[in-house]
Amino acid sequence: MEIDEVMKRAHIFEADHGPDGWPAIRMSDVTILRCEILELRAKLSTQQAGVRAVLKAAAELVCAPSWSGVSDEDCRLEQALREAGFVTPNVK
Prior knowledge:
mainly alpha; about 70% helix
């Protein structure tokens, strides 16, 4: 069963019952929703780890002594990292 079908059915139950009533939901629907949540959390965690790795590499690149930052792309990367608070301007 697709998650979209479960979501549709849950919405129908919600629309069909008053605020003090309790819709009759199937445990299988709850299980499907739970599995979907767990799968999405796992994907999010993996994506967050990837984003952190990319940001760390970008910050290390921008902060390296050999960083020239002369091209438009270099400047945009450095500016984006500064605005996000990942790097700060060098002050002597």
